[in-house]
Design goal:
Elements (H helix, E strand, L loop, with lengths): L15 H7 L4 E4 L10 H17 L6 E4 L15 H18 L2 E2 L5 E2 L1 E7 L9 E5 L5 H9 L2 H18 L5 H14 L10 H19 L7 H14 L4 H10 L7 E7 L10 E8 L6 E9 L4 H4 L6 E2 L5 E2 L2 E2 L5 H4 L1 H18 L3 E8 L2 E9 L4 H13 L5 H7 L2 H6 L4 E2 L1 H5 L3 E2 L1 E4 L2 E7 L2 H9 L4 E5 L7 H6 L2 E4 L7 H9 L3 E3 L5 E3 L4 E4 L2 E4 L3 E5 L4 E4 L4 E2 L5 H12 L8
Parallel strand pairs: 3-4, 18-19, 19-20, 20-21
Antiparallel strand pairs: 1-2, 2-7, 5-6, 5-7, 8-9, 8-13, 9-10, 11-12, 13-14, 15-27, 16-26, 17-21, 18-25, 22-23, 23-24, 25-26
Helix pairs in contact: 4-5, 5-7, 6-7, 13-14, 13-20, 14-20
């Protein structure tokens, strides 16, 4: 029986050590020339299964391996990985070294790894991922020498210490940010990108001391120990509070668990011909065909999805926060790589017969695909995409009808602001998730939950959201962020929840501690009324008049197909 389709032959509630003895192929490698592309999503998760499938299609995917979800079930908070699993991981690392052309932990030619979570059900940002694994005080010098770029090497090392310190060793993330902000203030620097190799080199001892002081033990210098601890931490992140809250809100079964993907690192922070981005093969708000996404040059993936940086447009014709920014687009910066990305995106959409949400990295002008999954979309987009895929011959009309939840058609009647109300907007940003909503402003998750429990509709206003804001986002009727883009955490989660959302309204100054939002001479405080329109990106002070849109042509076609195939999709 093929290892990628073999069923679990031991009950999922048994300890990982028992499951390891029962399921021989708990580790599944992927890369050029490996496997036949068949993958069990239940065992490998969406991310891992798609990597296996994409590698078999010849898509440029960095090589790696997936540790199946059953290997981590029952792993307690203080449990080490079972010895049998460690032995299999060590064997998989040896094979990966041969494929990737480096050596994990080598001081002269280091192979660095990413360790990522990935469940069978998409849970964006709820579990942990750790990048740049394998660096230490010696190998960072080797990376600087082999790359010829000391700034890049020390930036990667500080990223590892920061993410590993937070996710594996429990150091609060804001402690690292405080050290970084203090250093930038002393040097009169504004952005992380302004820091030199010497800046990162001088910051690292402070980061390492913070870990040792907070944890009572130093940051591990042994790459093998880093890997064991990281894999265990990612398995355990299935039970972290934000992941538990997300599953409760979305009815995701508790016993699924997460797979862990270990993959050779590729680096978007290698200079101006490198970068990272996220794209949709169709607009997730409207469903309009064509690539829609963001690109951040000389950066790693978390810089885009965290919402802490304002990325640039993917294409020259795309608008970013309402302002043309063609010269900074990926299409203008890296035209040949952009053309290759367009071709790969089209292949993936046809291979998986749906609109795709794709994460990618460019290293030194070379394209790598890190993930592809069916993208979350608004109700309007769901209808348009289903109809267009049918008319393009990618799916049948019956399948198009089955793909649209009847509730989505009801949501198409969501109100929008009138023209007069739009003209009175105090700020505008990206129309990240459609629909309009009026509610009381809240600047923290706690305030959003408190106001909602009191019966008030809430607009959650944040500089940017993070996975810890999941309760506040669920309590709110709409979401506004001052930073972040179309593929940020706020935008992605809001679309999945069906909440109107405006992202990247840069003119807003949100002071969470003061409980206030300022724009020009207008100040909005906790409890003040706001109206937002996620279809137009507008933020309006007070309650504003709304109007209901008429159904468009795609909706009419879908309803006609539904009648012909005997499926009831009629709205109330």
């Amino acid at each position: 029986m093929n290892s990628l389709t073999a069923p679990d032959i031991a009950p999922p509630h048994l300890p990982a050590s028992v499951l390891l003895s029962a399921v021989p192929d708990v580790i599944v490698p992927f890369g050029a020339g490996l496997g036949d592309g068949r993958a069990d999503v239940g065992r490998l998760g969406n991310k891992g299964a798609r990597l296996v499938e994409m590698a078999a299609l010849g898509i440029p995917v960095p090589p790696g391996f997936v540790i199946a979800a059953e290997a981590g079930r029952g792993l307690g908070a203080q449990d080490a990985l079972p010895a049998g699993l460690i032995e299999r991981i060590d064997g998989a690392i040896l094979a990966l070294e041969r494929q990737a052309g480096g050596r994990f932990g080598d001081a002269e030619r280091p192979l660095l790894l990413s360790v990522r979570s990935g469940a069978a059900v998409s849970m964006p940002g709820m579990m942990d991922s750790i990048l740049n694994l394998g660096l230490n005080d010696r190998s960072v010098e080797g990376l600087a020498a082999t790359s010829g770029d000391a700034r890049f090497a020390y930036d990667c090392y500080r990223r590892l210490v920061q993410s590993f310190g937070c996710m594996v060793m429990g150091v609060p993330g804001h402690r690292f940010e405080a050290l970084l902000d203090e250093h930038k203030e002393e040097r009169a620097l504004q952005r992380d990108g302004d820091l030199t190799a010497e800046d990162w080199r001088s910051l690292l001892p402070s980061f390492l001391r913070l870990v040792e002081t907070r944890c009572g033990r130093p940051f591990p210098q042994d790459p093998a120990e880093q890997l064991r601890l990281a894999v265990a931490a990612v398995f355990r992140s299935w039970m972290n509070p934000r992941a538990v809250a997300f599953r409760a809100l979305h009815d995701v079964p508790e016993d699924l668990g997460t797979a862990v993907t270990v993959q050779a690192m590729v680096f978007g922070n290698r200079g101006p011909d490198s970068g990272t981005g996220v794209l949709f093969t169709r607009d997730p708000s409207t469903g309009v065909p064509g690539l829609c996404g963001e690109f951040l040059a000389d950066a790693q993936g978390e810089d885009v999805v965290s919402g802490t940086c304002d990325p640039d447009p993917l294409s020259a014709g795309q608008l970013n926060s309402g302002q043309p920014n063609a010269d900074r687009s990926m299409e203008r910066r890296l035209p040949a790589v952009y053309a290759e990305l367009c071709a790969v995106a089209e292949r993936l959409e046809r291979a998986f017969a749906d609109m795709q949400d794709i994460e990618f990295t460019v290293e030194g002008g070379r394209l790598f695909i890190l993930q592809s999954r069916s993208g979350k979309r608004s109700s309007e987009a769901a209808v348009r995409i289903a109809v267009d895929l049918a008319e393009e011959g990618i799916v049948t009309r019956d399948e198009a009808v089955r793909r649209v939840d009847p509730q989505a058609l009801d949501e198409l009647l969501r109100p929008t602001l009138t023209a007069d109300a739009l003209a009175a907007a105090i700020a505008t940003g990206l129309p990240a998730s459609p629909g309009a909503a009026t509610g009381r402003a809240a600047f923290t998750t706690d305030d959003a939950v408190r106001l909602a429990r009191g019966g008030a509709p809430v607009i959650l206003c944040r500089p940017e959201t993070s996975p810890e804001d999941i309760h506040g986002m669920h309590a709110a009727v709409g979401i506004v962020t001052a930073r972040g883009g179309f593929t940020s955490h706020a935008a992605t989660v809001a679309r999945g929840m069906g909440r109107p959302c405006v992202c990247g309204a840069r003119m807003l100054r949100i002071d969470v501690e003061d409980g206030a939002m300022r724009v020009g001479d207008v100040t909005v405080r906790t409890g003040d009324l706001l109206t937002i329109d996620g279809s137009n990106g507008a933020v309006v002070l007070g309650a504003a008049p709304l109007q209901r849109p008429a159904p468009d042509g795609a909706t009419a076609r879908l309803l006609d197909w539904a009648r012909k195939c005997g499926v009831g999709l009629a709205t109330d």
